[in-house]
Amino acid sequence: MADIAATGSAVAKRRRRRIIVNKRVAPYVFLAPFIILFVVFLIVPLLYAFDLSVYKSTLVGGTRFVWFDNYKRAFTDANFWSGIVLLIKFSLMQIPVMLGLSLLFALILDSGTVYAKSFFRVSFFIPYAVPAVIATLLWGYMYGPAYGPFAQLATAIGWPKPDFFNDQTILPSIANIATWEYMGYNMIIYYAALQAIPTDLEEASLMDGAGAFTYALRIKLPMIVPTIIVTIIFSIIGSLQLFSEPYLLINLARNVINSHFTPNLYAYTLAFTGQQYNYSAAISFVLGGVVAVISYVFMLFANRGVSR
Amino acid sequence: MPKDKSILGAGLDRRRFLQVAGASLAAPALATLPAGVARADDVVNLTFWAWTPGTQDVVNMFEKKYPNIKVNLQNVGQGAPHYVKLRDAIKAGTGLPDVAQMEFNSIPSFKALKALADMGTSGANDVKDKFVDWTWKAASDGDKVYGIPWDSGPMGLLYRKDVFDDNKLTVPETWDEFADAALQLAKNKPGTFLTDFGAADAGWIAAVLWQKGWRPFHVDGTNIHIQLNDPIAKEWAGYWQKLIDAKAVDTAPVWTTEWFAGLDSGKYASWITAAWGPTLMTSSMKASVGKWRAAPMPQYKKGDKIDSNWGGSNFSAFTTSPHLKEATLFATFMGGDPDAGRFWNTKEFLFPVQKALIEDKELMGTKYDFYGGQAVNEVFAAAENQVDVGFEFAPFQDYVNTQIQDELAASIGGKGTLADAFDRVQDTVVSYANDQGYTVV
């Protein structure tokens, strides 16, 4: 009996050992689907783009290796930097408004004084489920100078028609679309963070005589600052890559949106109408660099602020 | 089952019978095919990219005649986006269609990319004599055939008879009269315009400037002559600048839903455009059908007869196609079949490129409902004869177009005058040409 039991445990041990070996491999097996997609759709294209960016193909003379010539050119390209400047302006205008609204609605939903909470949560979030292309077409129609609903409404009540597509209004018009699209998404992130705040804090603050407003301002907000910082970083990255909205609005607002309106639109034009794939790849890398630098600088300031 | 057997006879089941019957039916169809084309039992699939409305109907005609070739028609975009996708596929080295719509002004660009197949090696030259000489020459190089002409785009003035009558406007014969009419209409009826200045379409800009004698490019091997901002362009820019400043013409972007609605509602009383204009108008306009008329393009000197061409397409095959023979057969049918040509003209307003059709009095006398019963082919046939076909496009025309559109739009948006825009375009295009390895002379 004992013998049998010993053999049995030996078998079990061996089995366990085999499982231990498998355990070492297991994470990679589980990670494989991600790693494969990550390599195939991110790393390989990045390498390909980098390879493109150090060559120069021309209509006459073919392809030659040019080291970092394309990058040098990008650093002094006014068309590229004007796009960056424009997007910084855009970000300064759009991100505070969008995140401010997100935060406001998240706090209202979290405060527990709202009826039909889940209805509002879902309806604020729905625009995020609408693809950017559709959203832009939708707003493009609404902005229409002659037949759009705003123009028609203005005509009906005898006001001058609003112009959404001049050099003063084009950025706010695009910012409005972006805000409509992503406000709900950020709201959900904030809402989730707010829900994670332990309820005893609320009780404690009530004991100390804080009202709902003070509680939100002094307790809730500071507690979700890390979440806010993350959403700001995401928004900066998203804004600097603005493409779909101007790409689709260009036909409606040709006088104010040109082919190098944003850096991504510029890269697109360079590659697909100018046949300058190599330079376009370099532009994309420089844009990546700019995004990284701006995000890093923001993190630096944010961290200093938080630790203080 | 036994019943079936008794009908078909012993030893011959239904499946076997159908096989035999099918083969004997297919045999006559095979006999009509030119030699070298794949047999009925291995169907060849062709992919074809085009945006012209009604193309599927002609594809059906082709498939009916050649049942062993299946054509998959895809509309990947009208104009610019179509060419973007083609360039994309060329760069990727995969994904090109076998045949695509290719406008005359795009042929040099895609030839420069060495993407267009020479259909001459598959017998395309056999149909050469069917086509109007300049159209054939514009898409070929000696015996090398890079496109089978589809239609041409002689320019004319399309105008709203109702709006003209209501405002007592006469059809302008010269550009001076056109300007007077524009000022008059803007004064009579604010909010309506004689036309919309279509700066958002560089193809239109080139066509209208072409008439004035603008010849911006001449390519000779790797040498290129670039003269975009010559006095002709400047004078022309000045003419339109005056009308824009006087608010006598609109500057809204063309090809938008709003713009089509403007043509339909009478906000725009005319459109200087090519013969194919109505094919895109009829698909998005209802109210104004029957109220349009066509007149010759206004002239710079009274009594002159100078016209130009805008667009007009070809059927081009690509070097990547494994079925060049079938692609050539398809292209020559789509462009050269008389019934196809008749369909393009009578149903889709495309001006024919087949000599036989232009000489066909009955076809030329066709009355169109869109034009209130006017026989417009006669107008455009006269225009076609007045086109100087020596106009050259750049081997990087899409780039040039983008620059023209960007800079003219910037001027309209307040950055200098239209004439300044041409200076800016000249500078960027020259540096682009140098960058691409051309010698600018």
* CATH level-3 fold name of the largest domain in chain A: MetI-like fold
How does CATH name the architecture of the largest domain in chain A?
Orthogonal Bundle
Straight-line distance between termini of chain B? 83 Å
| Order of strands, widest sheet of chain B | 2-1-3-12-6
Strand order of the largest sheet of chain A: 1-2
Q: If classified by CATH, what would the architecture of the largest domain in chain B be?
A: 3-Layer(aba) Sandwich
SS-based structural class of chain A? mainly alpha
The CATH C-level name of the largest domain in chain A is: Mainly Alpha
Task: Quickly describe the structure.
The complex is a heterodimer of chains A (308) and B (441). Chain A is an all-alpha fold and 308 residues long.
Task: Spell out the blueprint of helices and strands.
The complex is a heterodimer of chains A (308) and B (441).
Chain A: H1 2-53, E1 55-58, E2 62-65, H2 69-75, H3 78-110, H4 117-129, H5 132-142, H6 149-156, H7 170-195, H8 199-207, H9 212-223, H10 225-240, H11 244-249, H12 263-272, H13 277-307
Helix pairs in contact in A: 1-13, 2-13, 3-7, 3-10, 4-7, 10-13, 12-13
Chain B: H1 2-8, H2 14-31, E1 44-49, H3 55-65, E2 69-74, H4 80-92, E3 99-103, H5 107-112, H6 133-138, E4 140-141, E5 144-145, E6 148-149, E7 155-160, H7 161-166, H8 175-188, H9 202-212, E8 217-220, E9 223-226, H10 231-245, H11 257-265, E10 270-274, H12 277-281, E11 292-296, E12 313-317, H13 324-336, H14 338-348, H15 355-358, H16 361-364, H17 376-385, H18 397-412, H19 418-435, E13 439-440
Parallel strand pairs in B: 1-2, 1-3, 9-13
Antiparallel strand pairs in B: 3-12, 4-5, 6-12, 7-10, 7-11, 8-9
Salient structural properties:
A: 308 residues; mainly alpha; MetI-like fold; 2 domains; two-stranded antiparallel sheet; 76% helix; 3% strand; globular; B: 441 residues; D-Maltodextrin-Binding Protein, domain 2; five-stranded mixed sheet; 12% strand
